[in-house]
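Archive entry. Fields below.
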Amino acid sequence: MICVLKQNVSGEREEQLIKWLKSLGLGVHISEGERQTVLGLIGDTSKVDADLIESLDIVEAVRRVSEPYKTATRQFHPADSVVDVGGVKVGEGLTIIAGPCSVESEEQLVGIAREIKKSGAHILRGGAFKPRTSPYSFQGLKEEGLKLLSVAKKETGLPIVTELMDIDHIDLFDDVDCIQIGARNMQNYELLKELGHINKPVLLKRGLANTINELLMSAEYIMSGGNENVILCERGIRTFETATRNTLDLSIIPVLREKTHLPVIIDPSHATGKANLVPPMALAAVAAGADGVMIEVHNDPMHALCDGAQSLTPARFDQLADQMRKVREVVK
Amino acid sequence: MNLNELRMQIDGIDDRMLELFQQRMEVSKSIAEVKKEMGKAVYDSARERDKINSLIAKADQEMKRDVFSFFSSVMDLSRSCQTRLLDFDSDLALRITDAIENTPKVFPDFPVVACQGLEGAHSMLACSKMFTSPTIMYFDTFDAVFTAIEKGLCQYGVLPIENSSAGSVNQVYDLMMKHRFSIVRSVRLRVDHSLLVKPGTALADIREVYSHEQAISQCSEFLANMPGVKVTACENTAVAADMVAKSGRSDVAALASYVCADIYGLECLKENVQDKGDNATRFICISKNLEIYPGADKTSIMAVTAHKPGALYRLLSYFYALGMNMTKIESRPLPERNFEFMFYFDLEKSVYAPDFTQTIVEINEACERFEYLGSYSEIV
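PREDICTED_STRUCTURE:
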């Protein structure tokens, strides 16, 4: 249920209403917009007398929210959310995230980080713990990889985003600015619940066989625990098409725009699996209104330990970054 | 026989009657004990009817009516006596005693109070008169004010109940049947209506006047002198002022308190236009639980009596017996019951009077439906 307050409501009346709603055992999510304040009510709202609240002079409207994702819904929070990732405001302007699929060495990582920074990327990505399809594939440098990410962060000043697979590793992620939850863990609800209790942004990737509503429900798991710093990421879904690794569902951008206030990022690298397909899809994502893109960049794609085929060279990335900014100018 | 001899005869009869009456009351008490053991109610209508009928049958023709009245009174007294013995620990008596003992000694200064209307409504003025610094929550309807305190959104609610010239606020009386609440205080507020307009509007320009129906009726003479002006009723006087302020027209006016002029940026064209100079409205302050503050000397009850001759008279006799001055009686039709009524009484009597609680319990027993609404003091 949401309760929209009128403009210029005196603080003590609003406080009294909130205090009472809380006394009914409800969670009250307050979203102060420029034009109006929205109170999102979470819990058993069946015992709430909507008519009574609606007859209050400070209340503009009361609506039942039918979506099962209460905190993620735009109705709760009409304005776009902005998530702060180590000083980078995701949701405000175009955010470019780039970096290698996995962290291989200090030299490789710091080198790429410097290059992408020069090209205007805002956040460095890099896998330390790698969820690979085959147990015989490179599993990542793990703890060592996280240390190298910290080094690259120190060298370049770029905030870092990297994947967490096991909540037991959380202590190693102190210096990480944004925790990525990969497509395969999107519905690992125990993991999501734990992330609700930490105060770090979470980049939540859509599972490769999950619907948009399921993605939002996963976001809800994190948000209902109190951590509302969630960024949604589309990385391709499984379809019958084999020409690309996955099918990049760009229609998710306008759909999510309507359903939620959370920022939306597109990962064309994993979706297409082919470097030559990445630039056009990245540009399309920006054109469709994505808040950001996440691009894999490798200084030596041919010899990358992981997903080399989908990585751009720093030079190609530089050109793409420039084009993306131009597209953004047009559509913003 | 001369007067003195006759008077002596009367004295002799009265002495015997006194003795017999006391004996009868003693037996009545024993009956109460038996009823208590058997778990039977005090009032046995069939037994009372048979008893009275048989007495009337035995009485001389010209005495029948007096015998009826006399024995009805005797039975009332007997029943009161039984009730006193049986029901002194009734729920209602406990509630009243508990409220007298456990209500804080001082009326709160900063509570959250529900009012109907908007900033500048007369309810707000009444509210400011009752509390030092209340947080006022405004609701669209009187119904919502009752609901707000029932559901705990507000601690208190302030409602207008009667006006010295326009009479009772029927809507509020009707809502009393629907809700559970207690009256904890009342206030009498001098209500002045002023003619408010947007700056620049002259008296001659006015084509339409907005106000609450109570205010319209309180200013009927003034409005009669404005021929050709349309009078439109709205939810309350502050809403009327707000409507004038927000209207694009320059030929509208509101009848509202002068304080609304400041709140809504209006100009006061004429002050005190009500028909009677000393126009006053009584407001009640309601709460969810029974609270009786020190100094409570007014009591409000509502009751439904049986639909038969003398029912109301018998109820009133209780007030008389306890020396309660009845300051208000109001009757409102009971919904879904053709021409049956709910009676509302305001009574003057200190709650600390020795028989107060007892009498209230007895009245409760005597009515078909009864609600003790609370005891309080009135601020004038």
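CURATOR_NOTE: Residues 32 and 166 of chain A are 35 Å apart (CA to CA).
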